[in-house]
Specification:
Catalyzes the oxidation of 3-carboxy-2-hydroxy-4-methylpentanoate (3-isopropylmalate) to 3-carboxy-4-methyl-2-oxopentanoate. The product decarboxylates to 4-methyl-2 oxopentanoate. NAD(+) binds at residues 77-90, 283-295. Pathway: Amino-acid biosynthesis; L-leucine biosynthesis; L-leucine from 3-methyl-2-oxobutanoate: step 3/4. Homodimer. By secondary structure, this protein is α/β, with parallel strands linked by helices. It is built from eleven helices and 14 strands. α6 links the parallel β8 and β9 (218-223). The chain starts with a strand and ends with a helix. It binds nicotinamide-adenine-dinucleotide (NAD). The site of nicotinamide-adenine-dinucleotide (NAD) has 22 residues, from loops.
């Protein structure tokens, strides 16, 4: 029996609805497998602005630091759209990732066989399903490098952003990606732009060095422009992809889009140690908030990732994934993934079906 403390940050819009279903699933796993999950709720995003005047109150960050893992719904909404950048709900997301020292973002892009028709790619390209894990560096590179504007004389202004990586930063993300590959099909693609960028040449050197510690993993390198093409030409060739912050930002969105269902995709942000932040990749979907229409599966699968990556509960995590697959195979869908002959259900009913399926496993 395990005992785990989880900070729960439902956030805004559909956040509380999907988090509620994920908690239901967590409790079902807890009683079935005899674990105790102690849930402690905190505020982030728009609701935190309304109550505490800031998107990430210090007490929320302290709560997260005191727990074993964090479950986050989503933040943002029309009400806060006109606030300045650093006061907006989304500033809370950057703040919590930095505050918890989370330097790696793991995003699986999976096409379940029951949902193949949802992919915008031709059926012959996705016929055997897709199962890719994108590992993105989260706290370095151009988004955090030196930036500024200078006077460029007759040419107006010049603006610059600096792509910079240290050996240390590349080594730790590479190691995490090799470890992820070891738990999967043992294939790793490192994506860079080493034909042009010095920072990419260092990236590649370090990845090659780390590879020596993982002789079982088959490593290849790909330029980012080619990787963007290969993802739509032949996505089945990929197992784990590791890349920098900016390239990962773009490629992980591309990989999610080819699955065709934003409401299905979970994510994990990890750092030193086992503390991780788990959240769906979608936003707060204010257009459907409060209507029992949101697909809770991305958040439920995020809990599955939490069990695997922060708590080492592989069997329990697999039970969640299998339950989701079984429910989809039985023809149940929320509206966002429904086709003509689906049995369309709401948020709560989808959560209930998945819980019942876990009981049966
Ligand atoms: P979004 O992901 O919220 O919604 C995009 C579209 O997908 C909408 O039509 C929405 O109804 C649909 N959708 C999203 N999740 C769904 C789900 N689980 N089930 C069914 N349909 C779903 O993106 P957006 O509309 O660009 O942004 C809305 C708000 O969310 C903004 O304030 C934005 O800043 C914020 N946002 C937050 C996060 C986050 O919290 N991590 C991420 C992205 C956007």
């Amino acid at each position: 029996m395990g005992k785990f403390n989880i900070a729960v940050l439902p956030g805004d819009g559909i956040g509380p609805e999907v988090v509620n279903e994920a908690i239901g699933v967590l409790n079902t796993v807890g009683s079935k497998f005899n674990h105790e999950f102690i849930l402690k709720e905190g505020a982030i995003g728009g609701c935190a602005i309304d109550t505490f005047g800031e998107p990430l109150p210090a007490k929320t960050l302290d709560l997260c630091k005191s727990c074993d893992a964090v479950l986050l719904g989503a933040v943002g909404g029309y009400k806060w759209d006109n606030l300045p950048g650093d006061k907006r709900p989304e500033a809370g997301l950057l703040g919590i990732r930095a505050g918890l020292g989370l330097y790696a973002n793991l995003r699986p892009a999976v096409i379940y066989s029951a949902l193949k028709d949802a992919s915008p790619l031709r059926s012959d390209i996705v016929k055997d399903g897709i199962d890719i894990m994108v590992v993105r560096e989260l706290t370095g590179g151009m988004y955090f490098g030196e930036k500024g504007r200078v006077d460029a004389g007759d040419m107006g202004q010049a603006a610059y952003d600096t792509e910079k990586y240290t050996t240390f930063e590349v080594e730790r993300i590479a190691r995490l990606a090799f470890e992820a590959a070891m738990k999967r099909k043992k294939r790793l693609t490192s994506v860079d732009k080493a034909n042009v960028l010095e920072s990419s040449r260092l990236w590649r050197e370090v990845v090659v060095k780390v590879a020596k510690d993982y002789p079982e993993v088959e490593l290849n390198h790909m330029y980012v422009d080619n990787a963007a093409m290969q993802l739509v030409r032949n996505p089945m060739q990929f197992d784990v992809i590791v890349t920098s912050n900016m390239f990962g930002d773009i490629l992980s969105d591309e990989a999610s889009m080819i699955t065709g269902s934003i409401g299905m995709l979970p994510s994990a942000s990890l750092g030193q140690g086992s503390l991780g932040l788990y959240e769906p990749i979608h936003g707060s979907a204010p257009d459907i908030a409060g209507q029992d229409k949101a697909n809770p599966i991305a958040t439920i699968l995020s809990v599955g990732m939490m069990l695997k990556y922060s708590f080492g509960l592989e069997e329990e995590s697999n039970a969640i994934e299998r339950a989701v697959e079984n429910v989809l195979n039985s023809g149940f869908r929320t509206a966002d993934i429904a086709s003509q002959d689906s049995k369309v259900v709401g948020t709560k009913e989808m959560g209930k079906l998945i819980k019942e399926e876990i009981e049966k496993i």
